[in-house]
Design brief:
2 domains; five-stranded mixed beta sheet; alpha/beta; homodimer
């Protein structure tokens, strides 16, 4: 029997799973932040090794291969670094690196060809052909792109609230929802502006820009309550995601995997994609499962829907 | 004869002018950054004092009053600080503080009631009633507002270029203009993205967000050449400025002063405002002249259009 490890190294947690060539998961491990860009190479590598060792655990099995999946497309330097770090703790193995769009895609389907649309804090679309990343659209960050993302929606939300407060935009229930979250901030004793405008400014500029994404759920809530401004923001976000995705989708059959917090089942954005691509939208699962399927593919063994089902069935009890 | 000093304390330079109650400027001084928020209180105050002492110069006249104009509305703490700093160098005088929207407004008109629309890096509209600031709209910064500003336009420019490069937006001549400014940046050896997309990302995220305003002039250039994308961006910017302004303008007679680099004579944004407010748009001049007029008003002496003309006529030769 041959064995591999799949690792999903994220900004806050790193999860690793050891599996056999049939897709049966036999060990699982977890560690802290594993993204070299945000956590630094040393800490991220240390956490990747820690998670891998925990996945090997008591079995003591030497994995033939480690598939490390990481945010962004700049992670290729990490393969030799991780390989050396594993070697230093007595694990001699081949390390491969792939983007987290790949682990998200293969968490939902074993089809080697298809598409991914992700809308979380950021937004990106990807095309996968024969198991390889073949195209990316957007994912360009909060200033240059991320059209239809949580940040994109949250930015529109706070701007709509500012415009409402200053009577230069339509009245919206978003104002009450946002102000409930930015209260108790001090404001200048006297000024020609409404104090609420100062409260909003202090909050928005007192946090990192991307944290505007935290206001996106308020758009979903207000839209569900019938607010026209919130509905327009979400309609525009759906249009932006569909436009990004449409620049990649080149067939009528392969799956379209929906990933990220804004594309959960039942969200207006998710519904818009399902209407556009009927019968082929799948919801992404745990990225660790996708990393595991990528490990099987890298081992060169069969990695079909049966394998993916087995991964999901045997991974769930390990996570507990 | 009574004397006052007007100071325009900006982010890069501080200019001070000594004038008599008739509006005749008799001394001028210049120093470095004078904005406490960006330069720090100590350096800003030191430069404000330096400019004021230079304006007093060889005349040795003690000003009855110093009118200090500063960006933003948070400068009220600066009056006692500046008063103490002047006292420490033997200048006992009354210090008043006003926002730079006031100095911009009174650089163009002595009418104590009217409006200001500014579009530079940021954008703000103001209402002035009986010489006092009576209303502000926008000026909320690049993330929350600044609708129709240089940043707002520049952000739209780089996003339009990204969309063009990724074939998810219309083709635009902005792409060539922007790429000419971001060339020679390195890109990963192999990637599924076009290298130009990397070049753009490195530039945009390698600078402070507000520096996107530097791309705004390219929109003016492309629009002048007939580019539809650039024209749409400028049309939207004009609409945003008109919307902000319209939330304050409450009469059909008082002046509308146009300030900031995007509202120079002949710009499409300036033309849109002149069409909306025919016969009453005035272009702002040097903020030092406005600070001088505010000093006259604070002295309680006549500050009419004759005074403003005298300020402009006698200030110009001093600046040289």
């Amino acid at each position: 029997m041959r064995y591999g490890i799949g690792i999903d190294a994220g900004g806050t947690a790193t999860r690793a799973v050891m599996l056999d060539e049939m897709g049966t998961c036999i060990g699982y491990g977890r560690a802290g932040a594993g993204n070299p860009t945000s956590a630094g190479t040393e800490l991220a590598t240390s956490n990747q090794v820690k998670a891998a060792r925990a996945a090997i655990g008591a079995s003591g099995i030497a994995p033939e291969l480690v598939m490390l999946t990481l945010a962004g497309g700049l992670g290729n330097d990490q393969a030799p670094i991780m390989s050396k770090a594993l070697s230093a703790v007595g694990i001699e193995t081949d390390v491969r690196v792939a983007g987290d769009v790949m682990s998200a895609y293969f968490s939902a389907t074993a089809d080697p060809t298809g598409y991914l649309v992700l809308s979380g804090t950021g937004a990106i679309s990807a095309q996968i052909v024969d198991g390889e990343l073949a195209g990316l659209t957007d994912g360009l960050g909060w200033l240059l792109g991320d059209e239809g993302s949580g940040f994109w929606i949250g930015r529109r939300v706070v701007r709509a609230v500012a415009a409402d407060l200053e009577s230069r935009g339509p009245s919206t229930s978003l104002t009450g929802l946002v102000l409930a979250e930015v209260r108790n901030e001090s404001s200048p004793d006297e000024d020609v502006r409404r104090p609420e405008v100062w409260h909003l400014m202090r909050r928005v500029y007192g946090q990192r820009p991307v944290e505007c994404a935290n206001f996106a759920p308020l758009a979903l809530r207000a839209a569900a309550g019938g607010d026209a401004v919130a509905r327009q923001i979400l309609d525009d976000a759906a249009t932006a995601l569909l436009t990004s995705c449409a620049s990649l989708v080149a067939d009528d059959e392969h799956p379209v995997v929906l990933a990220g917090g804004l594309l959960h089942d039942g969200s207006p954005l998710s519904n818009a994609l399902k209407t556009r691509y009927p019968g082929r939208c799948l919801r992404a699962h745990d990225g660790t499962a996708g990393a595991a399927l990528l490990a099987l593919r890298a081992l060169g063994v069969t990695a079909d829907s049966g394998s993916l089902n087995r991964i999901h069935e045997t991974l769930a009890p390990l996570i507990g």
